[in-house]
């Protein structure tokens, strides 16, 4: 309530002062005040409509979109209050004189229309800023009704003070008033920085810097006056995160120095430009340090994967080569074979977006043209095949072989994620007492390419966990390695531009001062 009261009081008083000065000029020049009041009323209605529309739009959005809109509104409110505070810091003491001069110029056309438009635009500007600022403050407040009541009381108090100043019954040191309220509003705006960063995280826009820093529940317990002051007024949560604390400090410290550095210690124009250049250089160096010092996130996966057979027994290892496309290297019992992979296709596997390859390994091992009955029994698991009679089919048999082998490989960012292998071996027997050819499947027994195998499930889980950890680290490192340096570079450009603008203005002022001096000579 206190924050919204001060916002309403300050913004309302700015508008009231402008309207009061314009009304004084109109009345002293015998002009009607009706056009001015019409403009003021329309501006107030538009400002209220802006706030209502923004609120209605926000309530119709999904939760994540609402958090995103709150972030945008908070950022706009921070820009508004920062610009207002900085402008008033240099113009508060001369505001009345400047407005009177502008009003006198506006009356030069002989009508009051220009002053009515001036009043309309002034109230519209203050009203729009107030609507956005109050809406952002309402979102951060724990009691919306109390916050709204504080805003209404602030605007009402501003109107009363404005009427008192207009009638001459109230004398107010505007410079001191705006300086005191500026200090409070800077604290409120710093709290809005915290709130905007938190809603940005809840909108899934900012996932970095979310480590807890300090527990402030002891300082601002829920439901207490201190809690209402810190959380409701200043916007400081009881569990601030790293990025929130940095944002709060990066806003509060420079604004405090700019506004409240002692006047007799403030640097001159030349020194101010040098400070800006040094600050810009510091920002550039900081951006470079962050970019080069923070390594890019990488996937930490094992170099090779264990392979198991259909019974879960370890049968070898597998790894991918760095070729394009890669090849699958299989190792078992001291024997290594390489399988060429082809037909890459994107596919979701084990919860990850992978590249799937297909390979056809070459079958090894003997394919004898003649098989004895004992060899046949060994190939079929030490069991006599159904339909064979040792007395009528004593062998040996003539064998005709047919073998197929397929390997499926899933790669995630050039790392082996999963693989399976299948091999079938079919033999057709004739002779040896058989009256008709007999076709049957036999178990291959020639190394890792035999039978069915797959990557161990534990390895797949390890790669999945490593990918998740890498993604979490990537978001964190990308923020500190790219986003923060980009912000520092933007700040450096702004500081250099301000220094160049100041140098240009000083140069033009110097030239202007020399021209009259030469004319007088």
UniProtKB/TrEMBL annotation:
Principal location: membrane
Regions annotated as coiled coil: none
Gene Ontology cellular component annotations, sorted alphabetically: high-affinity iron permease complex
Name of the molecule in the record: High-affinity iron transporter
Membrane topology qualifier: Multi-pass membrane protein
InterPro entries: FTR1/Fip1/EfeU (IPR004923)
Transmembrane helix in keyword set: yes
NCBIfam families attached to this UniProt entry: EfeU
Any Pfam family hit: FTR1
UniProt keyword terms in alphabetical order: Membrane, Transmembrane, Transmembrane helix
Biological classification of the source: Bacteria, Bacillati, Actinomycetota, Actinomycetes, Micrococcales
Subcellular localization(s) per the UniProt record: Membrane
Transmembrane segments annotated in the record for this chain: 38-57, 72-94, 115-138, 144-165, 177-197, 245-263, 275-294
Record region (Disordered): 341-365
């Amino acid at each position: 309530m206190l924050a919204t009261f001060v916002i309403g009081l300050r913004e309302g008083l700015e508008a009231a002062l402008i309207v009061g000065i314009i009304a004084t000029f109109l009345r002293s020049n015998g002009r009607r005040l009706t056009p001015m009041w019409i403009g003021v009323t329309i501006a107030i209605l538009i400002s209220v409509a802006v706030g209502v529309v923004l609120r209605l739009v926000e309530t119709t959005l999904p939760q994540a979109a609402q958090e995103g809109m709150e972030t945008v509104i908070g950022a706009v409110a921070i820009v508004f209050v920062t610009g207002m505070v900085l402008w008033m810091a240099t113009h508060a003491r001369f505001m009345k004189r400047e407005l009177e001069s502008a009003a006198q110029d506006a009356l030069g056309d002989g009508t009051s229309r220009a002053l009515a438009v001036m009043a309309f635009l002034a109230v519209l500007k203050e009203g729009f800023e107030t609507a956005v600022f109050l809406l952002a403050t309402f979102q951060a407040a724990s009691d919306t009704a109390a916050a709204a009541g504080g805003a209404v009381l602030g605007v009402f108090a501003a109107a009363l003070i404005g009427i008192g100043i207009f009638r001459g019954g109230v004398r107010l040191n505007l410079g001191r008033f705006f300086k005191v309220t500026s200090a409070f509003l800077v604290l409120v705006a710093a709290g809005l920085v915290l709130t905007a960063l938190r809603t940005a995280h809840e909108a899934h826009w900012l996932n970095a810097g979310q480590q807890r820093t300090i527990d402030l529940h002891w300082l601002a317990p829920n439901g207490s006056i201190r809690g209402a002051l810190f959380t409701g007024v200043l916007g400081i949560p009881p569990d601030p995160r790293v990025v929130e604390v940095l944002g709060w400090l990066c806003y509060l410290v420079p604004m405090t120095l700019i506004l409240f550095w002692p006047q007799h210690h403030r640097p001159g124009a030349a020194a101010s430009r040098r400070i800006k250049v040094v600050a810009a250089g510091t920002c550039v160096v900081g951006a470079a340090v962050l970019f080069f010092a923070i390594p890019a996130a990488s996937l930490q996966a094992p170099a090779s994967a264990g392979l198991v057979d259909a019974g879960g027994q370890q049968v070898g290892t597998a790894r991918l080569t760095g070729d394009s496309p890669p090849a699958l290297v299989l190792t078992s019992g001291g024997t290594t074979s390489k399988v060429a992979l082809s037909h890459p296709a994107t596919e979701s596997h084990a919860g990850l977006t992978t590249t799937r390859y297909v390979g056809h390994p070459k079958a090894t091992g003997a394919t004898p043209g003649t098989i004895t009955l004992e060899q046949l029994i060994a190939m079929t698991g030490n069991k006599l095949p159904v339909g064979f009679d040792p007395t009528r089919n004593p062998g040996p048999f003539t064998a005709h072989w047919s073998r197929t082998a397929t390997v499926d490989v899933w790669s995630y960012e050039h790392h082996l994620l999963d693989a399976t292998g299948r091999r079938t071996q079919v033999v057709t027997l004739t002779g040896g007492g058989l009256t008709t050819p007999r076709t049957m499947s036999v178990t291959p027994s020639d190394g890792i390419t035999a039978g069915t195998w797959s990557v161990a499930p534990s390895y797949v889980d390890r790669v999945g966990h490593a990918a998740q950890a890498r993604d979490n680290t990537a978001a964190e490192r990308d923020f500190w390695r790219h986003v923060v340096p980009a912000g520092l570079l933007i700040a450096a450009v702004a500081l250099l531009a301000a220094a160049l603008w100041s140098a240009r203005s000083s140069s033009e002022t110097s030239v202007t001062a020399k021209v009259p001096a030469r004319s007088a000579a």
